Amino acid sequence: MGKMNLTDTERAQLLSAARSRTVRAADVRRAKLILMLEDGESRDGIMSALGCDSRFIARWSGRFLNERLAGMYARHPGRAPVQPPAKLEAR
User: Fold this and answer.
1) I need a surface site. Which of 14, 43, 61, 82 has the fewest CB within 10 A?
2) Within-domain flag for 77
3) Which domain holds residue 33?
4) In a domain, 17, yes or no
């Protein structure tokens, strides 16, 4: 896999996310993955440390290489409300 060629800004943002107690756990895990890849950590070492599989590494490292920090966030926006908001507010 190899280096991600992080800029100083990217490294700072990923380190901040990896240390955060308020960032979602999934985002922390992805930040740690990119930092570990940048530091030359082995695939087996990453899988052991993060409790992930090779598909996780391939997916997120690929997204990072293609989209940089913008690619690090999950793409699904969530579900639409089951009932229209106006009906819920009327209750």
Assistant:
1) 82
2) no
3) 8-72
4) yes
User: Domains in the chain: how many in total?
Assistant: 1
Considering the domain boundaries, does residue 46 fall inside one?
Answer: yes
The DSSP code sequence of the chain is: -------HHHHHHHHHHHH-SSS-HHHHHHHHHHHHHHTT--HHHHHHHHT--HHHHHHHHHHHHHHGGGGGS-----PPPSS-HHHHHH-
Which residues touch 6 (CB under 8 Å, ≥6 apart)?
14, 34, 38
Q: Is 80 part of a structural domain of the chain?
A: no
Asked whether 60 and 43 are in contact (CB, 8 A), the reply is no
Q: Global pTM? A: 0.79
- What amino acid is encoded at 85 in this protein? P
- Give percent of the chain with pLDDT exceeding 70: 78
